[in-house]
Amino acid sequence: MKFSEQWLREWVSPDLSTQQLADQITMAGLEVDSITPVAGEFSRVVVAEVTDKQQHPDADKLSVCHVDDGSGKTSQVVCAAPNVAVGQKVPFARVGAVLPGGIDIRETRLRGAESQGMICSASELGLSEETSSGILVLAGDAPPGADFREWMRLEDTSIEVDLTPNRGDCLSIQGLAREIGVLNRCDVAGPAIDPVPAEHEETFGINVADPERCPRYVGRVIKNVDVTAETPLWMLERLRRSGIRSIDPVVDVTNYVMLELGQPMHAFDRANLHEGIEVRGARSGETLVLLDGQEVSLDENTLIIADGKGPLAIAGVMGGENSGVNVETSDIFLESAFFTPLAIAGQARHYGLHTDASHRFERGVDPHLARLAVERATTLLLSITGGESGPVTEVMDDGQMPSPASMTLGAARLRQALGTELEGVDVVDILTRLGIQVAERAEGWSAVAPSWRFDIAIEEDLIEEVARIHGYNRLPVRRPAARLALRADDEDRLTLARLRRQMVARGFQEAITYSFVAPELQQTMLPDAVAPALANPISNDMSVMRASLFPGLIKALEYNLNRQQHRVRLFETGLVFRGTLDDLRQESMLGAVVNGRRDPEGWSAGTRDVDFFDLKGDLESLLSLGDPEAWRFEPAQHPSLHPGQSARILRKGEPVGWIGTLHPAVRGQLGLKTDAVLFEVSLDALTRGQVPAFQPLSRYPEVRRDLALLVDEQLPVQALLDCLHEAAGEWLSELRLFDVYQGKGVSDGMKSVALGLTWQHPSRTLNDDEINQLVDSIVAQTGERFGARLRG
């Protein structure tokens, strides 16, 4: 909603500056988007009268004019505007004037003719963004010599307000004036609107076939209007300052009344109407050419205005081209109606339209405004276009008209919500100024909302209105009486979401299985497990609580294999239950099972099946998210895992899980025809990480030595690496295993382990003697502990 500040102040004018007024509106919930001057900056522009016009002797498109600027002498001006004429009142920039954009007006010669000033167009004065080929013609009563800026009252601003959908009542000068009057406790004085007496008896029939969507329709025939009359400059300026372009006096008046009162209106050419107006739903196959020239096929749910020959307009959205007012119109039918918001909501968007009328009807227009708007528009039209008004025809269904919402407001509830107690007289004054009918009752007030406020229906709405008008910034500021200390957050903890994302990134899908399993399955996979049995199980196949994630994952694997899924990668997180009910331990675990090809089927993929080390690599990718140095794998026996392909998972020496290939015997009992590899690890252990710590980079060179050690083939490489970390000293920066070899040159039962060791001192360069001593220490300790010796 864009409006002229001067127009608003004719209704209500508190003692506030423009910025203060905008701030007040914003704080009341009507956000001000922009404040812009209504004209550019210019000086020494006056009202003048064109007293003479002659054709320029050397230019076909130029005229030599003489203007009276009220100074007692005439000035000669060369003008290129085609619409300049003798007797016109025009804005005249005298010599020395400065126009918008810093344009200086000087005495000059154009094609040999002297020009002492400039007759201005609207765009040259910053009154219009569109470049015009004609000068601005003023009203005939404009006094020559008057300062143009003062006479046009250009010390004005256009204020644009961004309204929320519930405040459709403020889409008018009247609605905004009501708000400002309430906020400042000022009286609001709009123009007097008196009924216009009928000068003829002609009416036009109205039939509302859909009173549920159109409870009220008002119309009037006005005869002998002069559509070629000029809209007065004061109205044009108010429309322009509100962002609306002038079209013709009839449309200008309907737009003016819409801006002033908030009631959209439409005028039909009476000569193009037949039989009578009918408000109804569109019929199948009907079309309409709109005022913008667009032809639309009407949907049967669309509410339309029609006559005996067919559709005339989309109700509340846009009129039709064939029935619109044109230069040949002499009689008009002026309509004003109330359409329910739900009847119009979405109709404009359905046809790719958005109009000022639909914008207002969708948000709700005062249902009691239609007749008043007709009287106001009639008065303005008769004063501009002349003509004779007929009687007002009105069709109204009282049963379908919105009934005012009634509610109560409790004083205690108001005090609790606002955190302060307002005087009862102030509450009543606020609500009354808002147009709400208020009556005192025990412990509060009863209230009836005004017809223009569709958004006031419950007690909370009244509380919001009181708080808004009283001023949110005047309400007490209280801090909650609560302990707001920050809770400790373990920075070294990984989130479950991060672990899940890592598993998904490795090609796994998350499974969710039951927490209870078949006792036979659990006995097969975990013969020593002790877990509670359910007193009232869903079925015999789910009668004991799971002691591990393995049984559920194996059942999920079996389910997928039975449905021709030959490559399965599943993981699951959940609780496992160990012990009896009297001594029950619950632990969160993360488990996974893989089966089938290592890689998805593809032209570049291999055909090898997944094995123990593939799943171990997936698990190590999880471990690397936290503290990878804390984890170890050691060979161990598990009843459901292959004796030679199973390992216990340790974190800092503490057992926290298992990994391995499914035991062939267990696989046979379960009827699985392919291998499966599983792991299960404590979720608490997985989520423990470490906080990164900065370590300065050394500026000194690294020293690397490669060692090939011969050790027993059964020796775990990890044990050898641990020994090297102990023996290599504190300056060891990297230990890398880069080869394991068995074959020619290596004795049976032995293996060659090739290691790269890198040392770097933080504050000096290490010499060869120091490195040699460290290498000797490594060889000695590994030989003493594992019988290792240097190869070759």
Automatic annotation (TrEMBL):
Q: Which GO terms describe its biological process?
A: phenylalanyl-tRNA aminoacylation
Keywords, comma-separated and alphabetical: Aminoacyl-tRNA synthetase, ATP-binding, Cytoplasm, Ligase, Magnesium, Metal-binding, Nucleotide-binding, Protein biosynthesis, RNA-binding, tRNA-binding
Question: Which residues take part in binding Mg(2+)?
Answer: 455, 461, 464-465
Entry GO terms, CC = phenylalanine-tRNA ligase complex
PROSITE patterns in alphabetical order: B5 (PS51483), FDX_ACB (PS51447), TRBD (PS50886)
Cite the Gene3D superfamilies for this sequence: 3.30.56.10, Bira Bifunctional Protein, Domain 2, Ferrodoxin-fold anticodon-binding domain, Nucleic acid-binding proteins, Phenylalanyl-trna Synthetase, Chain B, domain 3
A matching Pfam family: tRNA_synthFbeta
According to the entry, every stretch annotated as the TRNA-binding domain falls at 39-149
**CDD domains to which the protein is assigned, alphabetical:** PheRS_beta_core, tRNA_bind_bactPheRS
Residues of the B5 domain: 402-477
The cofactors named for this UniProt entry are:
Mg(2+)
Q: How is the cofactor bound?
A: Binds 2 magnesium ions per tetramer.
Under Gene Ontology molecular function, one entry of this record is: magnesium ion binding
Family annotation (SMART domains): B3_4, B5, FDX-ACB
Domain (FDX-ACB): give its ranges. Answer: 698-791
EC number(s) on file:
6.1.1.20
> Which family, according to the similarity comment?
Belongs to the phenylalanyl-tRNA synthetase beta subunit family. Type 1 subfamily.
| Alphabetical list of NCBIfam families matching this protein | pheT_bact, YtpR
Tell me how this protein assembles. Answer: Tetramer of two alpha and two beta subunits.
Under which name does UniProt file this protein? Phenylalanine--tRNA ligase beta subunit
Q: Which organism is it from?
A: Aidingimonas halophila
